[in-house]
Amino acid sequence: MKLRVDRQEFTEAIAWATRVAGSRAALPALTGVLLEAADGRLVCRATDLEVSAEIAVPATVDAPGRTLLAARFLAQLVARFPDAPVDLEDDGDRVRITCGRARFNVRRLQADDFPAMPAVDDDAVRGTVKADALARLVGQVGRAAAVGDDARAVLTGVNLEASDGRLVAAATDTYRLAARSLAFEDAIDGEAIVPVRALQEVARAAGEVGGTVTVVLGAGQVSFLLGDRTLTSRLIEGPFPNYRSLLPDASEVTVVVDRAALTEALQRVAVVASAQTNTPVLLAFSADGVDIQASNQEAGDASEQLPATVEGGELEIAFNPAYLLAGLEATGTDTVRFELRDGLRAAVIRPHDEDGEVDDLTYLLMPMRVS
Fold it and tell me: How many Å is the Cα radius of gyration of the chain?
């Protein structure tokens, strides 16, 4: 293999592929990025057997071939290259990489051990969604997925449900739930639970590339096509919780409050709560606004009062401060709306804007008991 490639395009390609490569895989080949050169293109591939990434960039190919290099090492290397074309040549033992006056001889991994990449199912249903809209949706909903819950794998994913021209995404870790929908440009019907890690990589790429994302929903896998980039992920098997049954159909108390002011006050008061594990932050809503309180034996106590529009009476409710802050961040609007029943049942937080349209985000948060 012998080729020349643009430094910036090569750097971006390696960075994209490396994000899904295994870091401490039992199979050394999974820690690598496979480089395949032919027909004026360099294709970079990586996989950890659950998520696979592929990207193609133009290249001047003098001798076609393929080689496998350690992904993390290569990413660190190319990120520091000078602004000059990159030449790669595989001599059968090592790969010579030249960029400007920098020269490296890099040891190869066994390319024959690299697993076959999953192919995009040409017969599967596919739809198109705007890249920026998908990136925003994943950022809002993905934060509610569980982390590292091997016993309940479905909770580590985002449930995607496509029907009637819309894509509905939902995630929950049983303490909170986030759900939102957006319109398909080319609609499909289907449902799948996608690992949140895969969707976060898609969202990151969507923010970088822009344009549109094609969603290909196949048997046991889903692929996302973003220009010259492809990410394919295995689906998580099992039934997703019936989250719609958890959404309250009415509220007794509604509160509208400035999001930035509430966020800043919570961050200050939460310093006291963070001094002891599982210390909640109490929100007391009344005609005077909202009083934010936290107390524990180790650090002391704190409180701060903010103006708010409260309808329906007085109510006190306590939350995990980190989960509450995540919900406020997800809304993205200047003001937020709380919909409450009582201090023991789940609260709903929504974006609020009296003068314009807002995302149909629902962030449901379970309260904590206060002794």
Answer: 25
